[in-house]
């Protein structure tokens, strides 16, 4: 590659940072684009664990690996850097203490080509670079076999789109055909009026007049009927395509891994789903209406040519003007559309967040504050809509001026031709009618650009989620395959487990523990020490950085994730129940077996508690379960977990909201079932931990001690202090 080519690629792919916290992301985005890939800083934010404190080199490394780069972090010196021929990310310290990332693209003519996301592409001398590159840390990125180039991404996008609209081809084809018939029949007015003025009326031919009128009426009626049939086809297509889009999108969304949901707002997901209808409208337009518009332009121009070649040329010359206008505004429209959709998603997120948090808002009398925030964020959204509307109005204004000039120009020119007796009056009237419909269709095609861009942005946003790597493929035999024989769970052993969230320091280090059938064990630790995360790892929601997990002395990798989750049930501290009856929430089946659920609850002692609800098993649980107490929610969640017949039960502060009576019922129940279902408890309450067989104390990221309550009172200062504090209070 010549130096000029390289510089051209650098300047077209270099991306500036959104804010100072995004410098690392901007570097990574630039390198992805440099290697002909495609990404957004937003997407990278999730992968790298970027927060308002910025990104770590480790976060960039992990994000790069997720993107399919072979990434390597190295300590190097300036002489190594001179040999670099592919862009690398450097960790630098600028303006005294400000940590920053820059890209080094290479060294030539005694200068380093540097991409600084805060400033742009620039040249550094060796001394200048030495002055800021104090850490000597660099991240080398080479596209690996999983790196997806923009070209492949576009192909994948196209395939997804085609797969979604393929079933509509027949219906859209019929609609397009009917549209063509309608537009051809639409020319009848112009032709009939021309014949009327130039031939029929001057010749006072009553018989032809009557016949012509009858034919004209029949044509208009047929046109109305065909339009009606076509609109029915399109309404049906709209229903079916929207259902297909949403179910495909939603189906894919649910298959994404849990960390995706941890880092994506609900509002954003809902907003993207709502965008489906925009795509459907454009599909209809492009596949059907645009054919009609193009046809109207061609046939009208053909007729105008037949009447007068010079007028035909004028009408054809106008088309590039409209095309240029559409091209000129193309990029601006895309940017404005994207901003509208992003701010719509932000508004939706804020609505959902505010409404779900209504209790806290009311408790702290903050209705006005939140109303103000909503107003502000909605105002921002409306501003974006306004900006887009303004842009649309500007384009519309230019197009209208263009069509007005076209119309007046044509009228003047044809009138002059009539005066010169080169054109008949009826032909002039017909041309004016035809130029009207030609102008309208050209305008439609030019304005379709706005709709098209809107759908493109909507589609890209939907595709971004739909193309994210699912946790497991639907229908993948490896993931779906049931185990050859049922698991008889005897033992789970975790050895040397390390875990960290993307871009963060280690949360869990060298975790070792085991649980056997017949045991209840507890993870005990301070808030935020990683207890819940450890349970999430056991549910396979996160992958570990190091360590091994064995089930019955066999690596747990032998169990497909779906199968594993079938055997592990969880009750969380913040229980998620669904809008439906208590019965439905316990069974989580399409058609719950009432008798089976009731018998199960009677056998396990839940029945009496449930019968205390107003309508027993038929009690409807509200959205957000506001009609149940925290303890009742946890009890139903425990019943649900046990009803799924797990082989291992994970309880995350699962009795924290219960009263004494319920909690002691639960503890008795757990001791009764532990012979069949071992239990892992997570708590920071020693009074609960003491009732379990073995306690693992998590301190400073690792298990600092383990044993029974009595052993830990002697062995673990942390545990003893917690227990003594309890006695004092
Ligand atoms: N999705 C996430 N991304 C990044 N950090 C996270 C994520 N989830 C949790 N954390 C962080 O990991 C740490 C451990 O969280 P975790 O919920 O496991 O703690 P815990 O010990 O269960 O606390 P508690 O007793 O309060 O429930 C916390 O500092 C938390 O902020």
UniProtKB/TrEMBL annotation:
Assigned keywords, A-Z: ATP-binding, Bacteriocin transport, Membrane, Nucleotide-binding, Protein transport, Transmembrane, Transmembrane helix, Transport
Membrane topology: Multi-pass membrane protein
Keyword Nucleotide-binding: yes
Location in or out of the cell: Cell membrane
Domain of life: Bacteria
Domain ABC transmembrane type-1: 174-454
Pfam families: ABC_membrane, ABC_tran, Peptidase_C39
Residue stretches making up the Peptidase C39 domain: 17-140
Claim: Cytoplasm is one of the keywords in the record: no
GO BP annotations listed: bacteriocin transport; protein transport; proteolysis
Molecular function (Gene Ontology), one example: ABC-type transporter activity
Transmembrane regions: 171-197, 209-229, 282-306, 312-329, 399-419, 425-446
Any one cellular-component term (Gene Ontology): plasma membrane
Domain ABC transporter: residue ranges: 492-725
Protein name: Peptidase domain-containing ABC transporter
Organism name: Draconibacterium aestuarii
